[in-house]
Amino acid sequence: MSVQQTIHVGGKWQAAASGATREIIDPADAKPFAVVAEGGAADVDAAVAAARTAFDSGEWPRTPVADRAALLRRVGELLQRDREDIALLESRDAGKTLEEGRVDVDCVTDAFRYFADLVVHESGGRVVDAGSPGIHSVVVHEPVGVCALIAPWNYPLLQASWKIAPALAAGNTFVIKPSEITPLTTVALIELLVEAGLPAGVANLVTGAGDPVGARMSEHPDVDLVSFTGGLASGTKVMQAAAVTVKKVALELGGKNPNVVFADACATEEGFDTAVDQALNAAFIHSGQVCSAGSRLIVEESVRERFVAELARRAAKIRLGRGTADGVECGPLVSAQQLAKTEMYVASALEEGAVLRSGGARPEPSDVRPEGGYFYAPTVLDQCHREMRVVREEVFGPVLTVETFRTEDEAVALANDTEYGLAGGVWTADAGRARRVAGRLRHGTVWINDFHPYLPQAEWGGFGKSGIGRELGPSGLAEYREAKHVYQNLEPRPVRWFAG
After folding, report:
1. Average pLDDT in the 237-244 region?
2. Would you tell me how many other CB atoms lie within 10 Å of the CB of residue 131?
3. Where is the Aldehyde dehydrogenase domain (predicted)?
């Protein structure tokens, strides 16, 4: 395998300054299929310098909004042109199914188009009434500057787009670091930005590990903003490093998301079938490697046994395999480390008294599950409680825990009993209850009789240790801007405050 030059600085692709490389592993068979540059602190310094020059002296921050929006729309067109190739690359790199990869490309396209529309339809600023006809006062929004963007491994292309699209729409320059284990579609996205005509130095990419690459980006004195999506431990390190130079920081740090099912949602056969089906989707899409996964099923006691029995039966039938194989519904975990972590959490839960209803082991290899792949069977753990690690901590694997409640207050208390607060779902046929419970949940997104959909025009982010700031929506654009108040005195005259 030849080494890809995956570091992009000042408009040029290059190898790492140190010459170091990294093999990219296919999680379906644990075999390398690509080799990329393994950047370090020196590469970050060069990339930040290029972004700094492009912001301070380049054309992009001063490019008319309509032209910036046109470029974003062009990127959307290129994404659709290359949809199948990018989806295949995402499937092989991250282990997800090919159909999931296609959906991701479409969602990335939507993000670029949304921020293009948002920025071009804005007003020229907010006029502030100063109480005098001789004063013109307006609040305008300007780009933050150089942005350090750090994306996770589970949705490499999607999460990168949630940062890159608003950063560019606002007129910033950036350096992006994808996860070191899933960098390939971010490389492809930078290639499309170049093809779309983005000026050199605006988009810079450094592939490599969180330490030193992400660490150096977070602390760099010439970086004005850090946007990080990933785990809580890494997020706190990013925040600490950024604090030294008082950068703007946006963090999305995952969740431990409740999916609350009231008995009345299951009163009909159609309702029962839908709630069970959606509980499967909530927990096991992308093998549970989703920050908003509904990994905590909180079900009313009167329907618990029937609900869990059917859930476990269907979970056992989920077809696992290589994401590009026909009929496969769920791919492998992304790495050997993630597989071992999942096994640890399941073992811990069983030791603490959880009852295994489905899964709990690696499946046997087959034609669609190659030997050595990081596969783990969708797992349902019954009779769980809040003291268990598997209930408190983010597993990021195909593991669903089951808790029960008797009253609405108890359901809300359980759902909110988490350090995180990213997302949650409520299933009920009672419209009043749906609104009450949704209003009481301390989570950034609440679904009623659904789970997982998001809209690019609606803010995404969480409460508590799920992070700070928001992505998507108008607030997602605001993260990449600074507000400036311009106060103009149209009739200046002496103040005479001092006598002399």
Report:
1. 97
2. 7
3. 13-486
| CA–CA separation, 303 and 300 (whole Å) | 6
Say how far apart CA 400 and CA 390 lie, in whole Å.
9
pLDDT at res. 3: 82
- The DSSP-derived string for 384-449 is --TTSHHHHS---SSEEEEEEESSHHHHHHHHH-SS--SEEEEE-S-HHHHHHHHHH---SEEEES
State pLDDT tens for residues 320-343: 999 999 999 999 999 999 999 999
23, 32 Cβ separation under 8 angstroms: yes
Are 398 and 359 within 8 A, CB to CB?
yes
Residue-wise pLDDT for 173-185, tens only, equals 999 999 999 999 9
Say which residues have a Cβ less than 8 Å from residue 376's Cβ, sequence separation at least 6: 287, 332, 333, 339, 342, 343, 359, 361, 362, 363, 397, 398
Task: Name beta bridge partners: 403.
Answer: 298
What is the mean pLDDT of the segment spanning 441-452? Answer: 98
Q: Which DSSP string corresponds to 210-277?
A: IIIIIHHHHH-TT--EEEEES-HHHHHHHHHHHHTTT-EEEEE-----EEEE-GGGGSSHHHHHHHHH
CA angle, 227 then 255 then 482, to 5°: 25
Catalytic center residues: 252
Tokens for 442, please give them. Answer: 């301390």
The answer to whether the pTM exceeds 0.70 is yes
Residue 122 has what pLDDT? 84
Predicted confidence at residue 118, as pLDDT, reads 97
User: Are 81 and 13 within 8 A, CB to CB?
Assistant: no
**DSSP states of 323-356 as a string?**
TTSTT--B---S-HHHHHHHHHHHHHHHHTT-EE
